[in-house]
Amino acid sequence: MLVAAAVCPCPPLLVPAVASGAAPELDAARKACADAVGLLAASRPDLLVVVGPADQAARGPHLQGAPGSFAGFGVDLRVTLGPAPADNDAREERELPPSLAVGAWLLERSGWSDAPVEGLGVGEPLEAARCADAGRTLGARADRVALLVMGDGSACRTLKAPGYLDERATAFDEGVASALGAADTRALLELDAELAYELKAAGRAPWQVLAGAAEGAGLGGRLLYEDAPYGVGYFVAVWS
């Protein structure tokens, strides 16, 4: 069953080498993410699954040791999803989506060696019921499962945001922050998928996977970080 979860944003800018001169602007978010990953380690999981949004080619499971790269963002930096296993040559070569690559970078940064790691790329169109089903399946994978859930809120908080300014964005993000901070699975499952799409909120489906995994687990939540740099809603939360 699910014993702990960490929710983190997934912009490649979270990686200092990608952000370059703008790296200090996300220092607070990086620290919160490090604290959240530390909680996952303290939960002593038997399995950690990193969940994040993915385009069609990268949807579905990714095995431990799967490669990721930030070359598409102008940086010659590669990561792997958890420590590469000894038989890695026989493993998949499919590239991690950017969200899982950021998750892999967070784990590498923490020196993660506390449990086996897998990944799950989730498609933006996946409806809430199927997200919840996927989460329940993950929660049943081991006696003690932890999730690292990658996803951003709306991208429409300011005029210079990627999705321009949308007056609905602030209220949407406030609802997400409240649900994540309270470990409110019902509120997450009730997020409007169409509105999330219009607001370019890439975290909607991964958060609903988390909600399914957490059903009946009795976890409490705590919001560690909430901000909207670059006009995009970023949240860091822990459930335990």
Describe the structure.
It contains eight helices and nine strands. With 240 residues, the protein is α/β, with parallel strands linked by helices. It has a seven-stranded mixed beta sheet with strand order 3-6-2-7-1-9-8, sandwiched between helices. Helix 2 packs across helix 3 and helix 4 packs across helix 8. The model has no long low-confidence stretch (mean pLDDT 95).
Helix content: 25-40%
Q: Judging from the principal axes of the Cα atoms, what is the shape?
A: globular
Instruction: Output the number of helix runs.
Output: 8
How is the biggest beta sheet arranged? 7 strands, mixed
What is the overall pLDDT average?
Answer: 95
Strand order of the largest sheet: 3-6-2-7-1-9-8
- Assembly state of the chains shown: single chain
Low-confidence stretches: none
- Spatial extent as radius of gyration: 16 Å
- Per DSSP E runs of 2 or more residues, the count of β-strands stands at 9
Distance from first to last alpha carbon: 12 Å
The portion of residues forming beta strands comes to 15-25%
Which structural category fits the helices and strands? alpha/beta
Organism: Streptomyces melanogenes
Protein name: Class III extradiol dioxygenase subunit B-like domain-containing protein
Salient structural properties:
alpha/beta, 34% helix, Class III extradiol dioxygenase subunit B-like domain-containing protein, 20% strand, 240 residues, two-stranded antiparallel ribbon
Give the helices and strands, then pairings.
Blueprint: E1 2-8, H1 16-19, H2 27-42, E2 47-53, E3 60-62, E4 67-69, E5 78-80, H3 98-110, E6 117-122, H4 128-139, E7 145-150, H5 169-182, H6 185-189, H7 193-198, H8 204-214, E8 221-227, E9 234-239
Parallel strand pairs: 1-7, 2-6, 2-7
Antiparallel strand pairs: 1-9, 3-6, 4-5, 8-9
